[in-house]
Amino acid sequence: MQANDTSGQLPEFPERAGKRKQIPHISIENDPMILGGPIQSGITEWLKGTGVMSDVVMSSRARAARNLAGFPFPPTASSADRSQIMEICRRCIESLERKNGSTIRWFDLRNSDPNDRRLLVERQLMSRQHARGRYSNGEGGPDSPRGVAVIEPEERISILVNEEDHLRVQVIRSGLNLESCLKEINGFDDRIEQIVDYAFHPQFGYLTACPTNVGTGLRLSVMVHLPALKITGELEKVRNAASDMGLAVRGLYGEGSQAAGEFYQISNQVTLGRSDEMLLREIESEVVPNIVRYEQHARAQLMNENRMLIEDRVYRSYGILQNARLLKPDEALEHLGMVRLGVICELLPDMPLETVHELLLLIQPGHLQRLIGCDLSQAERRIARAKIVRDRLFSPQEPEQGDTER
Q1: What is the per-residue pLDDT for 222?
Q2: At what angle do helices 378-393 and 365-372 cross, to 10 degrees?
């Protein structure tokens, strides 16, 4: 990630810049982006279950926050400013070189289908905040100019426009693979910086709406599955230790989400004064391997010293999923998390791990409604969710309720 400022003078912060930058001429020689859905329905990158330490580490993600020089940050920008920012960013993304036959799909979130927005969140391609369009200061709303671009077919890269910052580029890979994520995001970020000027300060680094992102603007995170630490009562120690090291521990969908199923996102909170290499070394080489070892040790301890307890948890969840007729999302996630633990610990040797991972996605409201092919009420989703879990995990010959009543 290279700095654009070479003048030796301190540029103004974007919120105080009195004169707008001239809108750059962006030449587009590629095929146009695909506009809107449908979103892919296959397994997404964060649920492939491959890579280093993938028994514990579900996925790795690198995210870079960037802003255009000469424009206010999105939370304080006018709607006209956000529209202009979005158009510049959209054309910039469209002009980027496509590699290996990839395509770019663009979603204007002001007029996109609500279920498409749900799908993008559930596939970890954008945040819940971006789907709503509401900023932390109360500004914005569903009609706020904002968008997201997704690089297909891999769905490893997505670019959020007018979230908390003008641009948020993220790369996701399965397993513990932060180094590859960082390398890919740096290359992508450098290509964008050749087209537009970023808001950059020689002393502070990249300028961002949230002070904790100032500096490299880089957020490295991993999603981990820690059910054994929860069962043994050691999870709070790990969470407290991570917090003491300046790391954030959040739920499945990041900030503001709950940790259902014992799936957690662990990420750095501060970037100022920390180089990319420092953050990478701390998280990928020190913090995460230790957490993985704690979880693996807890699993081995349960299997060797308290096998009855882990068997009870796994088979109880297995039985509920096999027989339930109504399932809420968090309830399904909780039991699927235990079944995943059972598969990895070879308590359920005939259960494909790929099927469990697929269901972690299909039980979510957006994917569930897409699979059924229509909008469902909350009550209808609970019925459909339970049936899909039974059909995917267990015997397809299971009689329906109506058949048994006859």
Answers
A1: 96
A2: 80
Output the average pLDDT for the chain.
Answer: 88
CA 369/CA 119 separation, integer angstroms: 10
The pTM (predicted TM-score) of the whole model is 0.87
Greatest pairwise CA separation for the chain in angstroms: 82
Angle at 171 between CA 39 and CA 280, to 5 degrees: 160
Q: For residue range 256-291, list pLDDT tens digits in order.
A: 556 788 999 999 888 877 889 999 999 999 999 999
Query: In 3D, which of 62, 97, 272 has the Cα closest to residue 170?
Result: 62
Asked if residue 15 has pLDDT above 90, the reply is no
- Tell whether the model's pLDDT for residue 6 goes beyond 50: no
CB contact burial 286-311 (16+ within 10 A = b; e otherwise): ebbbebbebbeebbeebeeeeeeebe
Assess whether pLDDT exceeds 50 at residue 397. Answer: no
Residue 327 to residue 352: CA distance in whole angstroms: 21
Amino acid at 345: C
Q: Which of 28-32, 33-37, 140-144, 244-248 has the lowest mean pLDDT?
A: 28-32
DSSP 299-346: HHHHHHH-HHHHHHHHHHHHHHHHH-S---HHHHHHHHHHHHHHHHTT
Backbone angles phi, psi at 149, to 5 degrees: -110, 135
Query: How many other C-beta atoms can be found within 10 angstroms of the C-beta atom of residue 79?
Result: 13
Q: Report the distance separating Cα 384 and Cα 400, nearest Å.
A: 12
Residue-wise pLDDT tens digits, 87-106: 999 999 999 888 778 899 99
**What gap in Å lies between CA 365 and CA 349, rounded to an integer?**
29
CA 221 to chain centre: 9
Domain 14-53+60-220 -> CATH class: alpha beta
Q: What angle do CA 91, 127, 221 make, to 5 degrees?
A: 105
Which pLDDT score, from 0 to 100, does residue 11 have?
Answer: 39
> Cα–Cα distance between 134 and 116 in angstroms, integer?
18
User: For residues 75, 183, 296 and 290, what is the CA-based torsion angle, rounded to 10 degrees?
Assistant: -80
